[in-house]
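Example 3.2
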Amino acid sequence: SHKDVEGSLFVVKRRKCTAAVSAYYDESAEYSADNLAENLLGDFEFEIQVPDLLYRNDSQEVYGIWFYNFASL
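Structure, written as tokens:
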């Protein structure tokens, strides 16, 4: 599924008020008002197929993140 999100990729680890730790990535949109955030914990699965990083989220949807310079992974 294509999300029309293009821009910087941030992987962050944050602590919630309940002291549970979560990790997610946020791809900030440069060309639209929409951002995409995914939880990297739980059932997160990924596979690298140069130059893409493919992943399946908690909802079992498959997405790909394309990297301009694969050496930056």
